[in-house]
Amino acid sequence: MTGTPDTRLIVLRGNSASGKSSVAQGIRDRHGRGIAVVGQDNLRRVVLREQDVPGGANIGLIGSVARYALDHGFHVIVEGILYADRYGPMLDALRRAHRGRTHFYYLDVPFEETLRRHAAKPQAAEYGEERMREWYRPLDLLSGDWESIVGAEQSLEDTVTRVMDETGLRAGAA
């Protein structure tokens, strides 16, 4: 078992430029201290400098970092593309092991909208439409009935509010 009955585990999944990092940052900004953001891109690309491949070392590292933070009393937001076929077993094990409230969200954004959002990102020049098209998987949901879909029609502000309300996090709690 991991975490405590008081810790929250939030998983934000979706395609590139669907808003995962922005939602995680919005939650952290509103809540304050006490939230660990476990970003797939940071652990995979920066810490390990690894490609996203089945069985990659980053998969276990994401789970380990999330567990460590939960065990030390932090609420945890795991965020990334986190393809269902590659990351699903680790995420399911984390979900089953967590003692507190756990919530999964899939940000469902059409490809054309992800392109528009990507163009406004600081790293827009690092990769373009062709790479994004290779990565894009429509509605790549995890097996089971425990993932909520957040549509592109929801604003960033509305999504942050929804996640905080549904998870029981309070603004300015820490």
In short:
With 174 residues, the chain is α/β, with parallel strands linked by helices.
CATH architecture: 3-Layer(aba) Sandwich
Mean pLDDT: 92
- How large is the count of helical segments? 7
CATH topology: Rossmann fold
Low-confidence stretches: none
Textual characterization of the structure:
This protein is an alpha/beta fold and 174 residues long. The protein has 7 helices and 5 strands. Strands 2-3-1-4-5 form a 5-stranded parallel beta sheet, with helices on both faces. Helix 1 (20-31) packs across helix 7 and helix 3 (57-71) packs parallel to helix 4 (84-97). The radius of gyration is 15 Å and the shape is globular. The mean pLDDT is 92.
Layout of helices and strands, plus pairs?
Blueprint: E1 8-14, H1 20-31, E2 35-39, H2 40-47, H3 57-71, E3 75-80, H4 84-97, E4 101-108, H5 111-119, H6 129-135, E5 147-151, H7 156-167
Helix pairs in contact: 1-7, 3-4
Features:
174 residues; alpha/beta; Rossmann fold
